[in-house]
Design brief:
Elements (H helix, E strand, L loop, with lengths): L2 H9 L3 E2 L19 E6 L9 H13 L3 E6 L12 H11 L6 E3 L19 H12 L15 E2 L13 E5 L2 E5 L4 H5 L8 H27 L5 E4 L19 H14 L3 E5 L6 E3 L14 E5 L8 E6 L7 E6 L12
Parallel strand pairs: 2-3, 3-4, 7-8, 8-9, 9-11
Antiparallel strand pairs: 1-13, 2-12, 5-6, 6-7, 10-11, 12-13
């Protein structure tokens, strides 16, 4: 993105994510749930050339004492660089510099695509195991200087390996991470692919569907004001059902659609992957030509556009969520010479 375009982004107004485009009046809520904010990033850092930009993002987020946590939508390196333990350790130490809880959902670049020669020709399932070991060392506890306790799907005896699928409630709003990645959710072919790779995808989809179902059931039971799901892949919301771009995502998308319709209150599907900041309503009801108006997609900045999103959550508002673009002015400049 050019600096001019980024500055235009910076001048844009906040985007409210309610059921209609117009502002809605606040509910009179006897419980008085409090408003809060958090940061959303993704697809960063892609390479050492981005480190200084990430440093600026970390500094801005750490300086904002209103923020409750940082959500990262995955892809902690680009798809053409090594998936080594050393790279993982580098990213882990960078993320630990966030002073508030840091929540990561995995991306395909850090495991599913690691079979590529320029990634080191790793076996993807081995890299997934290492990723879980390093980035989720204590199941149910986030990263960050200050940690946060969350629910984890690993507590379910049926899905003990899924430490990365997490869930928590704040001020009567439900949040969850779901392991859904690009490269057709891990189905993209490669020379050394084995039946075990196919089995992993089937099991991960099964776990994701169970986690999504449980999350909405719990949100309904506890009368949550809204739900936000975080995952890495752009699953092709706007593509025709059955198209190649939705391969690996169809079952999950159908579940998301059905749950959003049933829930009726604001739902946000947050992801990265496409490196294209946007807030839209791409989901169409299966039996209707109308948009699912309470379902909003938020895609993070990514790759070359190293900025962040500030999400304001107001449980007492009909919209619940609103998104503010935080353009890091220093990152519009050229890298300073050493």
């Amino acid at each position: 993105m050019t600096p001019v375009k980024s500055l235009l982004f910076a001048a844009a107004c906040a985007v409210a994510l309610g059921q209609t485009a117009s502002a809605a009046p606040e509910h009179n809520n006897a419980h008085g749930y409090g408003k809060f904010e958090f940061a959303l990033i993704g697809d960063v850092p892609y390479a050492p050339a981005d480190f200084w930009k990430l440093d600026n993002v970390i500094a801005e987020i750490n300086a904002n004492h209103k923020l409750k946590w940082v959500l990262h939508a995955g892809d902690i390196k680009n798809g053409s660089t090594l998936c080594s333990d050393e790279v993982f350790e580098d990213r882990l130490q960078r993320f630990r510099r966030f002073e508030i809880p840091f929540v990561l959902t995995p991306g395909d670049n850090e495991w599913a695509d690691c079979h590529r020669a320029n990634n080191g020709s790793y076996q993807p399932l081995e890299r997934l195991a290492k990723l879980r070991e390093m980035f989720y060392p204590v199941p149910g506890q986030t990263l960050g200087e200050k940690t946060m306790t969350v629910e984890t799907q690993a507590a379910d005896p049926s899905y003990p390996e899924f430490v990365e699928n997490t869930r928590w409630m704040e001020q009567h709003v439900m949040f969850a991470t779901v392991h859904i990645v690009g490269s057709n959710n891990g189905l993209a072919p490669f020379a050394a692919r084995t039946p075990a790779d196919d089995e992993e995808v089937a099991r991960r989809i099964e776990a994701a569907r169970a986690w999504i179902s449980e999350t909405f059931a719990k949100a309904e039971a506890e009368d949550a004001r809204g739900v936000l799901l975080l995952f890495q892949a752009n699953p092709g919301f706007e593509l025709a059902k059955g198209s190649a771009g939705r391969r690996g995502f169809e079952e999950i998308l159908a579940d998301m659609e059905a749950e959003a319709i049933k829930f009726e209150k604001p739902v946000v599907f947050a992801h990265g992957d496409s490196h294209y900041y946007r807030v839209d309503k791409p989901m169409m009801g299966s039996n209707s030509k109308r948009r699912i108006e309470n379902a909003t997609r938020v895609e993070t900045f990514g790759a070359d556009d190293v900025h962040w999103l500030r999400v304001v959550v107001d449980p007492n508002s009909a919209d619940v969520f609103s998104v503010h673009q935080e353009i890091v002015e220093k990152n519009l400049e050229q890298h300073p010479l050493p």
